[in-house]
Amino acid sequence: MNGIEAIWRAESGRVLATLIRLLRDFDRAEEALHDAFLAAHEQWPKTGVPANPRAWLVSAGRFKAIDRIRRRVKFGEIAKEIAATEEEAWMPQDVEAIADDTLRLIFTCCHPEIPADGRIALTLREVAGLTTEEIAAAFLSRTPAIAQRIVRAKSRIKELALPYEVPEPDQLAGRLDAVLHVIYLIFNEGYSASHGAAAIRTELCAEAIRLCRQLVELKPEPDAVGLLALLLLQDARRDARVGPEGDIVLLADQDRSRWDRAQIAEGAGLVQIAFAVQPVAAYTIEAAIAAVHCGAATADDTDWIEIAALYDLLLRADASPVVQLNRAVAIAMRDGPEAGLELIEALLSRGELSRFRYAHSAKADLLRRLGRAPEARAAYEAALQFTEQEAERRFIEGRIRGLAN
Amino acid sequence: MRYLCLVHTGPDPFSGLSEIEKRELDRDSLNYDKELESGGHYIAAEALQGPENAVMVKVRNGDVSTTDGPFSETKEHLGGFILIEARDMNEAIRLAAGIPMARLGRIEVRPVYSIPDPARP
């Protein structure tokens, strides 16, 4: 039943967040979510989809969890365990509270008491619903390493009994950076999915924007405003980024009339606000770059001088290899493919990006433009080796075929 | 994804247990298989006889040769397995942690490798 799958995709993250708050245990909540899903598959085809599926799933999951505790826990402990889950009595009408649970969960997952390497992995899995394997791919890391970070982070939350709450606005400082970073990563996974059939997972982008808006409403810190601007501008191009067959359409080839102009206007306005505050946050600079792209009437009109200058500025705020790669591409557009190629080859030789698909595909693209087909083919094949996303694979395979002709 | 949970145990994992405790463990293990089944996670599970009953087989240049099982000096051996379906590695870890034998031995969680079908490029 397709309706269930669609509801599942839209609701499972928020249902899980609420179950974690109610059951105060990640593993038990995941189990309960799975049970609720099975129950929906069994009952909804007979009874129809309930009016409020989210509340239904939360109720079913909570009921199943209590049922499991009754069956599993040795006598005597039962009363205590169930009392813990019932302490916070929950009513299905309590929909407003659910809306905030995701943000609460992010703040818990990003708590400073949790080892830094575990925070992001845990949040991506519990909030964005990514699998361990997807997170490992996104971080160019091995699955067992990520899996263990997640296990340790969960036990830390349990051990310290960390509360599920959004800090008061005056205590946000010091907690906000990590949260903005995971929202950014959730969006990125939606913007270019690392796995699976669809190149773009719009529900992840929408969720990241929703969460970022909630944060800005809570406290309009310039970093948060800059991030919201970035997400709005990038997401505004979503309809033009995939062709009718689900194929990837590059920025230069996109039908710009399909860009969401209202969203671009909102994003560009926020860039101006955030850019006025010194020092300018990295997200704001990235948003400014996106705004330049969105402001160009055609691909040829793109102001690459401005974009390369913004990348120079960005490099000072964030000297990560991925930023350097993007800057190299901008410089190739400003000064020609050779200049960019030199930078990318230097970056690749340092090793940090050797498993990053976009480093190889960017190199391949510059080699292709220079007419160096055999080298371009080798670089595309290197990119293919690290690409598990079907639309991206098709795109690269198409480019390789194009080289032969 | 499918994950194989390999139950590694010492040479005599049940030595410290009373008859009642052994029966409880057997009952818990069967119940857990049922629980995995009702959650849609169960694919297959078996407990294995000891390595003293095992034979190693190999073929070299077409000749079949056999030796005794691998029990020589190993402190741990494979006591059984459960093949499960899980969303990801962390779900597999959660399910493996519920295997009653995890309290006596150790569970190795191995993702199943899908051999690419050469007929489907």
Task: Describe the protein's architecture and organization.
The complex is a heterodimer of chains A (405) and B (121). Chain A is an all-alpha fold and 405 residues long. Chain A has 19 helices and two strands. Chain A has a two-stranded parallel ribbon. Chain A starts with a helix and ends with a helix. Chain B has a four-stranded antiparallel sheet with strand order 2-5-1-6, covered by helices on one side. Chain B has a two-stranded antiparallel ribbon with strand order 3-4. Chain B is flat. Chain B starts with a strand and ends in a 10-residue tail after the last strand. Chains A and B meet through helix 2, helix 7 and helix 8 of A and helix 2 of B.
Please tag this protein with its features:
A: 405 residues, mainly alpha, Rna Polymerase Sigma Factor, Chain: A, Arc Repressor Mutant, subunit A, two-stranded parallel sheet, 2 strands, B: 121 residues, Alpha-Beta Plaits, 6 strands
Apparent shape of chain A:
globular
Number of domains of chain B: 1
- H/E topology pattern of chain B: EHEEEEHE
Count up the helices of chain B. 2
SS strand fraction of chain A: under 5%
The biggest chain-chain interface is: A-B, 17 and 12 residues
CATH architecture assignment name of chain B: 2-Layer Sandwich
Q: Helicity of chain A, in percent?
A: 55-70%
